[in-house]
Amino acid sequence: MIATLEPPAVTPTPATTPGAHPDKLRQTVSASRLNTWLSCRLKFYFRYVLGLKKPKTAALYVGHTVHGVLKLWNKARWRRQTVTIDDLKTQFDTLWQADQVEEKIKWDEGEEADEKATAWSLLDLYLKQSPVPPNELPEAVEVSLEADLSAHGLPRLIGIVDLDRAGGRIVDYKTVGQTPNPEKAVHTNEVQMTSYSVLYREATGKTESGRDLHHLVKTKTPKLIITEQGPMTEPQRVRLFRQLESYVEGVGRQDFVPSPGLQCSACQYMNECRRWS
To answer: Which domains does the chain have, with CATH numbers?
Structure first.
């Protein structure tokens, strides 16, 4: 049983959280913050400078809960605890309700039951088909890492890796609505996976053995797609550092301009963006 694996305490969060001054944002950077900057600088401003908090969409909430249960599963193995699917189902039900204290999801009629069933079907599939052996002890699970890049004139890189498998294989979980194209998946997640490689090498002094994207696909019949790639290459490292340079310089100029495009259709800040001038 996993009675010791209690979900974290949840406290209500206001619609607006304290933002950060641009000078402070230049001191540290995460992959998610850098990705937001690269996709739209005005969205970055709304999220990180003003601190405008938006409720999670149904799709994001499913992904959030799935990640939470996989975290519990990985930590149980890390601690050499016995855990069953029934145990995890109980924790899933607890997390699903507890997280809504903070998120306050506005469900359409019948939507919550459908999304909850989808979330569990993804987890049930993963637990049965995971390429990670049940008796494999992870190197680390959701540990905060950082890398001092000041020698390169760059901010401190921070991040939390979903799973470091035995032998130094980095795993990141993704819940998606369509079956991913391997080449596009590697490209669109390059900032995140390269950042994780930098963090892993800084923390361990070793080179990771590989990097995997574990996609849980929310199709009518759920699928698990594993996208494998090797260790970070030198061109990937240089590419990330150049992107970080752009981040530091742009935030310093407070270059918070919109980037209209196809990505706007899914952006929660569209109304604020349309009022920008």
So the answer is: 22-129 (no CATH), 140-252 (3.90.320.10)
